[in-house]
Amino acid sequence: MEMTTIKIHEEAVDIVKSGLAIEENILKMSLDEYTSDLESFERKYKMSSEEFIQKFESGDLGDDAEWFDFLFAYRAYEHVRKKLKLIEEIQI
């Protein structure tokens, strides 16, 4: 992935760092919540999230509404995890 350089005034560095820290904390809290949700679904349906996604995407589970809550939690978890990784890679 290509890196982009962003120029900011020296006085703004602390503001940017603070904003990133706040966003990182919010994302970590969200990740904890989605992790808990996924663990609940895994216990309820007796399958790992990865196994669920594989079965869901292959059509083995059907399209019952109950599966979409599991799917949402999985997709949200993955989205938040990717955003956290991006924040952790920012160098200031």
Describe the structure.
The structure is a single chain. The protein is mainly α and 92 residues long. The protein has one domain (13-89). The protein is built from three helices and no strands. The protein has helices at residues 13-45, 49-58, 65-89. The two termini are 18 Å apart. The relative contact order is 0.14.
Quick structural overview:
With 92 residues, this protein is an all-alpha fold. The chain has one domain (13-89).
Key traits:
mainly alpha, 92 residues, elongated
Helical residues, percent:
over 70%
By secondary-structure content and strand pairing, the structural class works out as mainly alpha
Please tell me how large the radius of gyration is.
18 Å
Q: Could you give the order of the helices and strands?
A: HHH
Unreliable stretches (pLDDT < 50, length at least 5) are none
Number of strands: 0
Record the SSE blueprint:
Blueprint: H1 13-45, H2 49-58, H3 65-89
Helix pairs in contact: 1-3, 2-3
